[in-house]
Amino acid sequence: MSKPKIVFKVALFALVLTLIAVACAPAPTATPVPAPTQPSAATKPAPTVAPTVPPAPKPIDTPSKPVDIEMWAQATSTQAPAPPDDWIGYKVIREKLNINLKYVIIPTGADGETKLNAAAAANALPDFFQAVSTTNARNKIIELTKQGLIAPVDDLLKLMPTRVKTHYNDPAAMDLMKIDGKQMAFVEVPNLPRREGLVIRKDWLDKLGLKSPTTIDELFAVAKAFTEKDPDGNGKNDTYGLGGFFDDTGGPGSRFAFFFGAYGVPDLWDWERMDSNFGLSVRRPEFYKALVEFRKWNEAKVIDPDWATIKRDEFRIRWPQGRYGIMWEDFAALAMAANYPKFDKNFPDGEWAPLPAPKGPDGKAYYGAYGAIGAVFAVSKKAMDAGKGPAIARLLEWMATPEGYYLCGFGVEGVNYLLDKDGVVTTEGLPDPTKAWTHESMARYTQWRNQLIFVNDPKEIKARYPDHKSIKGRTISPMAFYNFFSTQPWLNSKPGQLIVNPPNRADLQRFYNENFQAFALGTKPLNEQTWADFLKALDTNLKANEWEAAARKTLQDAGILKK
Amino acid sequence: MFRLGHRDEWGFQLLVNGFLLLVLIIIVIPLWRVIMTSLTPLDVYMRGGTPMFQWPWEWSFAAYEQMLTHPVFPRATLNSVIITVCGTALSLFLTVPLAYSLSCRTLPGRRIIIALILFTFLFHVGLIPVYLLVAKTLGWTNNILAVIVPPAVGVTNTLVMMRFFEGIPEEIKESARIDGANDLQVLWQIVLPLSKPILLTIGLFYAVHYWNEFFTPILYLNDQKLQPLPVLLRNILIGQTFSEYVDYDVTRAASIESLKSAAVLLTMLPMVLVYPWIQRHFTKGTLLGGVKE
User: What single-letter DSSP state applies at residue A303?
Assistant: First the structure.
């Protein structure tokens, strides 16, 4: 072998070894230095007026030795990284609370749950973590409790009087995480509940001389007109009365819950009958009637026929293109300044108006069912045994005080936000608008805001969802939509969090969904016999009746159902 | 080249070329669509989706800009490069001696060793035991060894390489031994220079695997400074999907579909660039290694 070749091979080998050595070196330890763009919070007085946050309580006694806390939580903005090591928040937490906080972002969805499960299996759960679950958070907490991996937090609640008032003030939600009388996890404030609703193209109604529908029958007539009478006037048959998609949230799915709500059965579970008849909504004759009506709409082609196959992203491409006259949408996705222009650019004269829950043949009207709870956080038994409990309580309590609330929710006053005369957070008048808390580059500084900080106070909501102007100068108010949607009749499905999923949940869900879609789309005959066969198969093949019996017992034991 | 005058051969060539053209179209059209989607401006997309063709002056690079200007993009790319280079080097470093040893028919217990290796291929141990070993026993949380070492030896790759080595005439190795070379020298000076096709082929397989490594980093690398490119791209895409729900200024010049397509192309790019360079060895490597006489 020639010399240059040997030299080359040796050099290559050395390079690879060097790369391996570099790669395997531990990550550099963070050296806290003040952030150049973030002035020290210590030098600025903390805002004195927080929406509902009472004055800071007497601090819990802090030990002299710093406590290391590892926290796993999802990020509010997954596209943004975690706060940098020199973030002022870490500095304040270290100096004032004597805590070295390490924040690990866990992924959303099944990947996050798998990560958590793997850590649990290895008894390597972090000190404080968000108990993520793609199905049911209570089930996750039951599982971790049985494995002896998490500790009760009753004693910690006593150490955070402020946070109990601001964040843990919903006993129904907190009770969901009580196992054998012990509080096994904290239930944080949920993202705005009842935030989705029914909207209609008011400009189309005006053009066709129609009045706003109030019943399912009127809604059908309007949807038919929107489909057949060229409401956008482009001479093409390219519009549908109703648009939506199947979101697999149980029952008819949240997008069509209003339709089944007109028959009293908007959810997977029958929340109208909180007695010994409680069970799946499909048992009710009203569900069958609703499905027959829904099929009629499909056969009349007034619903976008792709609803069973398209997903949310595709749906949100279609409605700004003017495909639908009526739809069910999230108020922020519909009207926020970041989202509305997609529609506004195409239809400057277009106008969406909220619709009340349409009444069914028996006069019933429900928008849907709401049962979402906030993020669930637990403390590992390992951390509690190591005496870290009080430090975790200290951290949570601080996040509920004005200093922690504003710093972790909005950033630094004067840099990332200002307070107006009413004490509402605003970004108008900031010296550098690119440092506004709403600017995407600042998202990394407020990564916990949806999980641990926000309280849904009116002032806070006003700051989060401000009004804006359309191209034609109309005021678009996301909060007007939210206020309308949230005050419609909804059924409370929160007790559903108590119901433990059956082992064959995936099979049951698949069977349910496939049949629902086949009946609705007309690919399977729908009559009393085929419907009875479907219900029978649910019990004989998938033991749905056993699941219902178990659900009834759980709710009866919890005192929610009458025995 | 066609030999004119032979009607049968003409027909055959036409058939083959027609078929290949069809395959080419089937491959190119989706790729073309991905490229076009990544370049479609937001307003065009919101009006009518992605057109199959756009003039270059209509292209928008907003999706690429958003990806490439992400604050941790350079770090994530570097991490991916380190994982890919080190992982591929380690994999080859371990696979070559293993495959060579197994290719020696005189190796005592050869069949048993091969059976044991095949056993791990057929019966995978699952996530939790591996996690216990890597995170608890070895303590490799936040260490990229956790991403590099566990998949370092691939069973399929080892067997393919073993078959290739078996195909090298024994006489060549024997002549080296007669000249006084030991087994290591035979491997290094005789076998490896003759095995470029298989080294490049298997190296590419390993490199693609490490470059696309996604779930293992999520599992073991808690420190964001260590996260590789696929994890970052996933986070960006999920963030865009969720952003419609949140109170955030996410007004963008690119649609979520453009971002997805740009992410796909950015992830593909390094491998697409490397592939032509080793393509001439690729077929030879897999064919020779995959066939047993």
Answer: B
- The fraction of chain A above a pLDDT of 70, given in percent, is 88
pLDDT at residue A26 is higher than 80: no
Number of Cβ pairs < 8 A linking chain A and chain B: 145
Give the number of C-alpha atoms closer than 13 A to the C-alpha of residue A350, restricted to the C-beta side. 26
Where do we find the tokens 């593909």?
B268
Q: Taking the CA of residue B51 as centre, how many other CA atoms within 13 Å lie in the half-sphere pointing to its CB?
A: 12
What are the contacts of A140-146 at 24+ separation with CB within 8 A?
A140/A113, A140/A376, A141/A177, A141/A179, A141/A184, A141/A185, A141/A376, A141/A378, A142/A179, A142/A500, A144/A120, A144/A184, A144/A378, A145/A179, A145/A184
At the topology level, CATH places domain B62-290 in MetI-like fold (1.10.3720)
Binning pLDDT at 50, 70 and 90, where does residue B73 land?
confident
Amino acid at A468: H
A450 close to B (CB below 8 A) = yes
Query: H or E element: which one contains A199?
Result: strand A196-201
For residue A347, what is the nearest residue in chain B, using CA coordinates? B47
A41-191+373-456 adopts what CATH topology?
A: D-Maltodextrin-Binding Protein; domain 2 (3.40.190)
Q: Which of A134-143, A295-304, B189-198, B222-231 has the highest mean pLDDT?
A: A295-304
Output the pTM of the full model: 0.75
Query: Smallest Cα–Cα separation from B236: which of B278, B267, B213?
Result: B267
Point out which residues pair with A380 in neighbouring strands: A150
* Confidence class for position A38, pLDDT limits 50, 70, 90: very low
Average model confidence (pLDDT) across chain A:
86
- Per-residue pLDDT of A48-60, as tens digits, reads 334 454 444 444 5
Distance CA B43, CA B40 (A): 8
Task: Give the span between the Cα atoms of A108 and B239, in whole angstroms.
Answer: 10
Which of the 8 DSSP states describes residue B43? Answer: H
Contacts 24+ apart (CB under 8 A), B71-75: B71/A81, B71/A441, B71/A444, B72/A81, B72/B224, B72/B225, B72/B227, B72/B232, B73/B229, B73/B232, B75/B225
Q: Are A390 and A159 in contact (CB under 8 A)?
A: yes
Mean pLDDT for the stretch of residues A111-138: 88
The encoded tokens of residue A407 equal 């710093």
Beta strands in A361-433 (DSSP E): 368-370, 376-379, 418-419, 425-426
Task: Identify the residue among B244, B252, B257, B259 best suited for mutation to test binding to A, counting A beta carbons within 10 A and taking the highest.
Answer: B244
Q: Cβ B248–A338 below 8 Å, yes or no?
A: yes
Q: What fold does the segment set A196-370+471-497 form as a domain? A: D-Maltodextrin-Binding Protein; domain 2 (3.40.190)
DSSP A72: E
The tokens describing B202, both together, are 């298997």
**Chain A residues close to B256, C-beta within 8 Å:** 313
Q: Do A406 and A46 meet the contact criterion of CB atoms below 8 Å apart?
A: yes
Q: What does the domain layout of chain B look like in residue ranges?
A: 62-290
In sequence order, the β-bridge partners of residue A67 are A99
DSSP state of A388: -
Do B43 and A345 count as a contact with CB atoms less than 8 A apart?
Answer: yes
pLDDT of residue A461: 87
Strands A128-130 and A376-379: antiparallel
Contact indicator for B256, B237 with CB cutoff of 8 Å: yes
Q: What is the pLDDT of residues A438-447, one digit of tens each?
A: 877 788 899 8
State the Cα torsion A410-A154-A387-B138 to the nearest 10°.
Answer: -80
- CA A411 to the chain's CA centroid: 22
Pairing of strands A324-330, A240-243: parallel
Residue ranges of chain A that CATH labels 3.40.190.10 = 41-191+373-456, 196-370+471-497
